[in-house]
Amino acid sequence: MQSLALQLPTTFVDDAIELVTGFGRAIFALATAPIERIARACDVAGVLEQRRADRRAPRPAVQRGRRRKSRRCRWSPFGGLSDLT
Known about the structure:
This protein is mostly helical and 85 residues long. It has helices spanning 4-42, 47-56. The longest helix is centred in the first third of the chain and has 39 residues, at 4-42. It is elongated and about 60 Å long. It starts with a helix and ends in a 29-residue tail after the last helix.
C-alpha cells in the first residue's frame, strides 16, 4: 500500500500531464480544422474516409521482422492529403 505522501504528488503530476496533453490536442484540432474542412470538401471519391477506416483496422503481424517505413510525419497537418493528389 502506498503512503498518502507518495500518492498525492504522483496523482498531481499525472493529472498535470493529462491536462497539458488535452490542451495540446485542442490547439492542434483548432489549427487543423480549416485544412480538414477543405479536405472533406475536396474528397469526392471518399478517399479520406477509406484512409481513416484502414487506419482503424487491425494490421496483420509483421513478417520476419520487416517493418515498413512511413514517409508521413505523425504531426504534419498535411500528411493525409497526399492521397487526394
